[in-house]
Amino acid sequence: MPSPASIFARLRLALLAAAVIAVQGLGAPQALAQTSGRAEPVTGPGVTTIGGIGPGQRINVRQGPSVLFPVVGSLGYGTRVDKGLCIGGGSARWCEVTTLDGNVSGYVSGRFLVEGAAPPSDDDLAGGPDYWVVRGLAANERLGVRLEPKSGSRVLATLRNNEIVRNLGCRMTGSTRWCRIRSTTGMDVTGWVTARYLRESGAPPVVVPPPGPDDGGPDFYVVRGLAAGDTLNVRSKPSAQAAILARLTQGTRVRNLGCETSGQTRWCRIRTTGGVEVTGWVNGRYLREG
Asked: φ and ψ at 215, to 5 degrees?
């Protein structure tokens, strides 16, 4: 008959085995572990990280969706992964994951996956006035118009106090409200600004540029007024954001196909006269009758 000590030892081993199954194998690092996985498991839209464990712990990645499958690697707290197919539900849910560098791929318990919120829908951009006016900037301060709704994104242009912009919709990114705008004066720019400096506004006054001596237009223009070494962009549309089709140097002669005004910029549709024929739009300020 087994002794009490033997029975206690077996019970202790059984409890330890159950604990290992419950936590899906927290333990020592494996040879295939991702080494760049210490990002905090605070995720954004479309981002999945390893969580539900302490910052110094790791979970095992297995060849199949069960602790019965062999371990193929381990992932630390905060490791970012691409999530694939999930099997089962509740505490028995297992998901296929792959690290962003592709070094580790396998299955982990679904309870260790922390997923970001779904991306904002188009409805998040609905509502609001047609126009905003920039207010609240300090003297000599400028409001950055950014490529994306986040503070570290590239600045496309800057706005001053009292400039009026068109409202293209707002959304929350973290605790900051960002609004997508389009400029109504100067260079045509579309981007994101922080909403704290925007106030509801009416439409900007219509500014009609005075007629120039070239209205109606000559048959040909010559490119003039460029700085030394500069070129004039030929764009697919009358917009500073349109694709660049070609670049013209000082003195280039082009055919005039008609001009129009967008905001405060006069755009002219031209066709090159050299061996390679290109048709597109250029800023009219750099054209002279020729």
From this structure: -60, 140
